[in-house]
Amino acid sequence: MHQHLHRVSLVIVISIICGVLRATNGDYLIGVGSFDVTGPAAGVKMMGYANMDQSTAGIHFRIRARTFVVAESSQGPRFAFVNLDAGMASQLVTIKVLEKLKSRFGDLYTEENVAISGIDTHAGPGGYLQYLVYSITSLGFVHQSFDAIVNAIELSIVQAHNNLKPGSIFINKGVENARINRSPSAYLLNPAEERARYPNNVDTQMTLLKFFDGASKKSIGAFSWYATHGTSMSRNNKLISGDNKGAAARFFEDWFTSNTNSSSTPVTNSSNRSNISTLVEKAKAIKATGGKPCGNLTSQGFKVRKNNGSLFVGAFCQSNVGDVTPNVLGAFCIDGGKPCDFNRSSCHGNDQLCMGRGPGYPDEILSTQIIGGRQYQKAVDLFISATEELTGKIDYRHVYLNFTDIEVELDGNNVVKTCPAALGPGFAAGTTDGPGAFGFQQGDTKIYKLWRKLRDLLKEPTHYQVQCQKPKTVLLDTGEMFVPYASAPAILPIQMLRLGKLIILSVPGEFTTMAGRRLREAVKETLISNGNGEFNNNTEVIIAGLTNTYSQYVATFEEFEQQRYEAASTLYGPHTLSAYIQEFKKLAETMAKGEKIMKGPSPPDLFKAQLSLLPDPFGDSPPPGTNFGDMKQDIIVPKNGTFTKGDKASATFWSANPRYDLLTEGTFAVVAVLQGQHWTPVYDDDDDFSLFFKWKADDSYLYSMATIEW
Ligand SMILES: *[C@@H]1O[C@H](CO)[C@@H](O)[C@H](O)[C@H]1NC(C)=O
Ligand SMILES: *[C@@H]1O[C@H](CO)[C@@H](O)[C@H](O)[C@H]1NC(C)=O
Ligand SMILES: *[C@@H]1O[C@H](CO)[C@@H](O)[C@H](O)[C@H]1NC(C)=O
Ligand SMILES: *[C@@H]1O[C@H](CO)[C@@H](O)[C@H](O)[C@H]1NC(C)=O
Ligand SMILES: *[C@@H]1O[C@H](CO)[C@@H](O)[C@H](O)[C@H]1NC(C)=O
Ligand SMILES: *[C@@H]1O[C@H](CO)[C@@H](O)[C@H](O)[C@H]1NC(C)=O
Ligand SMILES: *[C@@H]1O[C@H](CO)[C@@H](O)[C@H](O)[C@H]1NC(C)=O
Ligand SMILES: *[C@@H]1O[C@H](CO)[C@@H](O)[C@H](O)[C@H]1NC(C)=O
Ligand SMILES: *[C@@H]1O[C@H](CO)[C@@H](O)[C@H](O)[C@H]1NC(C)=O
Ligand SMILES: *[C@@H]1O[C@H](CO)[C@@H](O)[C@H](O)[C@H]1NC(C)=O
């Protein structure tokens, strides 16, 4: 430890003398990795809105797991941070990934130093979480979703590990406007003097890390953290998408590639590239098993993944996103366009009439592009102007806690407790990003007789639980429902990663704005007061939301009073946040003092208990007299037709069900242009924002059709 401090101060002295940054002889070993995480694109319920009608039916753009690994040296401390294009992390995914890493690397990567952080897209296939409440709407567990995610995370970490090279890391931060507060009435319940310390009812800061390869002097990636929900795509969307953060990552990676190599074109704004005056389509929907695909893309000279020559990974990570929406125009009544009721986000008592609007309203793709574009633009600014180099230790602390009954010491020796998990009626009301379907409103604390009976049929909450959760009324007693297996988590991991002056807090849920601020401040104070000068005002604390497992929301004690969606989804009662702060302070103290911490009780592995009710895919042969890849419909793309900017072309083919083969790291669709004798691919479903691969069953439900739009 001492030796290292000396090295750091020596390095600083040298840089001052030489007046240059030491980009060549980096402080750290750094590696980045990225792998396709796109799960089943047909007939699997999506994760996020709990909308039973929202099944996957194609791909807008593929989603990925993006990883960086940093190490002090090949033997020294390290950690891996995974940015996962999925709704959230899952305990079971984390358990299986760690098992796979153990068999590859021994004890190099463990629960302590691996963080898997979901971006909160609501447009990915569901069924990969182990607690029952999170797989009911996906008809139980979906092995294909789960395997795709586990595999992608593992391989992205392996790639990052294999890429470890000496390099340097720069940090930068700035203000971005891609969000508003979706529960401002709850925010207002926080103390006035506390609110007065902040200019805004949402956090506006984006923090970015820029990774440099010391030898080539080229950047190999950038990860940024910024809070805004992945709800630019609506509850009616059926295309797999990374929503605004996934889009930002695509834009950023394309920008980097095109700016470091003048030979490739940027695709952040496809308008330039769609100037194809004679569009000849050669899009192929690919049948995957039980026969030959319509074409071998590789043998036809089509790229499968662009730019594999020099990997650059740009990732947009989630933060304390609880009450933050990207639907920045606000929420309005769909019957008349008036603003919704302030306290309840409903219209004449109906939550379903109140909907948030994104900046591209009513076009959700445009909203995704704009909100993704703002984060991307900010990241580019921060990337270009980053000059502050990170130096100092890599460290981490991790502990499992049973949140069922944590004793929390409040000020004045007042001891309170967390409760078994439970959801209130405000949870069922949903939010202005996606209202619920059961006639509840945010803020409700009453439940009618019928619902009470239904609830008691599932599990009647104990008297203790009813008292403990107040002012929340228990609508679903998830923490006491264990049949056929646990409905909600009891054991949660909390984790703290250190990279020089940067502290990343891995939280297993969605903290509201003020909850996140309190946590960050408490951790920072604890580090400073216990760190013997090692931490100071410059210490940068950020929150990585939805990390390692998922336990819904965390609102402040005051916000809990109103029982809007976020509070009603704060599982462990009014003191949930206080418990987090207390336990994170313990992590901070041990880190500051260089001490170890007890591991705590391990979470259960419920893999064997999972129930799967999803039917098998169908459509493994084309209709008689046709072949896979035959055009079903070609009315919109006339031969030799001409198109101008803004026109949309579309073609429909007989295809197999995409669930037969995920075509991982590939594409279901390619649009190519005939240039002379040569077909040049221009769009695919991997990353082109302007191409849509849509799947559906024909009327007989026997055959599959793929439609390609661009
Ligand atoms: C950059 O451009 C050159 C020349 O056009 C090409 O050979 C190379 O593959 C490109 N590299 C990347 C990373 O795209
Ligand atoms: C794309 O670029 C065109 C012109 O360069 C511009 O008019 C258009 O607004 C841009 N679209 C988006 C979504 O940014
Ligand atoms: C379109 O291409 C032109 C010329 O290459 C470039 O100056 C312009 O920035 C591009 N516009 C967009 C929106 O990418
Ligand atoms: C589209 O491409 C054609 C042929 O290359 C060119 O003449 C025309 O100016 C382009 N149009 C636009 C809007 O860029
Ligand atoms: C596709 O073609 C490439 C190059 O010709 C070949 O290496 C590859 O094995 C083929 N893939 C399949 C699935 O046939
Ligand atoms: C991309 O990867 C393939 C397969 O590993 C390789 O054949 C090809 O040369 C690579 N392309 C570039 C530009 O490095
Ligand atoms: C919202 O509720 C608070 C407290 O219950 C009340 O004081 C306030 O007037 C309400 N605001 C509106 C706009 O209804
Ligand atoms: C968590 O704690 C509760 C109360 O002490 C206990 O009943 C429960 O078994 C624990 N849960 C797990 C998964 O260990
Ligand atoms: C840290 O910053 C705060 C506010 O900017 C200031 O009041 C305080 O004195 C600073 N503390 C130290 C140790 O610099
Ligand atoms: C399309 O254009 C080509 C070349 O100009 C011509 O040979 C061919 O007959 C045209 N096809 C149709 C269907 O018009």
Topology readout:
Blueprint: H1 2-18, E1 28-36, E2 42-47, E3 55-59, E4 64-71, E5 78-84, H2 91-105, E6 114-118, E7 124-125, H3 143-162, E8 165-175, E9 180-181, H4 184-187, H5 192-195, E10 205-213, E11 219-225, H6 243-260, E12 313-317, E13 324-325, E14 330-333, E15 354-357, H7 364-385, E16 388-389, E17 394-402, E18 407-409, E19 415-417, H8 425-429, E20 430-431, E21 434-435, H9 449-459, H10 463-469, E22 491-499, E23 502-506, E24 510-511, H11 513-530, E25 540-544, E26 553-554, H12 557-560, H13 565-568, H14 576-593, E27 631-633, E28 650-655, E29 670-675, E30 678-684, E31 692-697, E32 704-709
Parallel strand pairs: 5-6, 11-12, 23-25, 24-26
Antiparallel strand pairs: 1-4, 1-8, 2-3, 2-7, 3-31, 4-5, 8-10, 8-16, 9-13, 10-11, 14-15, 17-22, 18-19, 20-21, 22-23, 27-28, 28-32, 29-30, 31-32
The structure holds 2-acetamido-2-deoxy-beta-D-glucopyranose (10 copies).
Mind explaining what this structure looks like?
The chain has 710 residues and is α+β, with helices and mostly antiparallel strands. The protein has two domains: 10-261 and 307-401 and 490-609, no CATH class; 632-709, Neutral/alkaline non-lysosomal ceramidase, C-terminal domain (Immunoglobulin-like). 24% of the residues lie in helices and 23% in strands. Strands 1, 4, 5, 6, 8, 10, 11, 12 and 16 form a nine-stranded mixed beta sheet that branches. A seven-stranded antiparallel beta sheet has the order 7-2-3-31-32-28-27, with no helix packed on it. Helix 2 links the parallel strand 5 (78-84) and strand 6 (114-118). The structure holds 2-acetamido-2-deoxy-beta-D-glucopyranose (10 copies). One 2-acetamido-2-deoxy-beta-D-glucopyranose is lined by residues 185, 342-343.
